[in-house]
């Protein structure tokens, strides 16, 4: 989380009980949930959109209050002393309904549940890592251990969140059945496949072409698209008028409202040049490409902060 380009974070947010209680007060006053992402040294705020700016301002005020005391030579030692043996690795308060991981670190049950749910929803490979020892442990917690530590319905929720995140990252390989309320998944045919296989859903018994993702019995994809070309032409026209494009990696519809021409697809995480739709492994490569090939990064407010790039997923 940033405010006016400044990252709202301090090392005291890791292990200071008093600071944690202040965060709880902000949550209660504004009706939001504040997650401390210790690994990336960032806050994540969940709640009504109109509460986001007040939450940023409250965190900025708290940061200004604690910074003067974070400049001493013994800061790291004092933080270690504040985090005692029985404290939760997340909130650094005495663990409530404590549970202990195989690596020996203690968590409040609710803190552990929230950590699992947040990690499961993140872009990237699914791995829940221990943040004990003030974020230095980083040992992956085995799935079997997570299952043993959580109630069955919460564990199912973690798995569902993880699977949904996995599906978003692999939209060019896997796809949900288009039938409403059908949760079945099929593998997408590769572009070079001459005769794409037909997927028959074991749940709703409908058939789907794994290339064009519709049902067209006894017709090739080309024949079906020819029949439906009128509707397709209208769709393409509407997308052009509304300023939509397709992500070149996962085909998710994306739209740029403002800002520079670096787009970060919220579905698969691809870094995209809006002008030519070339994809890159990170934002820096994209900015270098735009400067070299297109002569600049685009509109006013040229900010290299990825969080300021606008992308909308549909």
UniProtKB/TrEMBL annotation:
> Is Electron transport there in the keyword field?
no
Q: Where is the RING-type domain?
A: 84-300
Pathway assignment reads:
Protein modification; protein ubiquitination
Fetch the Gene3D superfamilies from UniProt: 1.20.120.1750, Zinc/RING finger domain, C3HC4 (zinc finger)
* Source organism per UniProt: Fusarium oxysporum f. sp. pisi HDV247
Gene Ontology CC: ubiquitin ligase complex
According to its UniProt entry, the protein's GO biological process terms are: proteasome-mediated ubiquitin-dependent protein catabolic process; protein linear polyubiquitination
Entry-linked CDD domains = BRcat_RBR (cd20335)
Q: Tell me yes or no: is rRNA-binding among this UniProt entry's keywords.
A: no
The identity of this protein, by name, is: RING-type domain-containing protein
Which PANTHER family is this protein grouped with? Answer: RING-TYPE DOMAIN-CONTAINING PROTEIN, UBIQUITIN CONJUGATING ENZYME 7 INTERACTING PROTEIN-RELATED
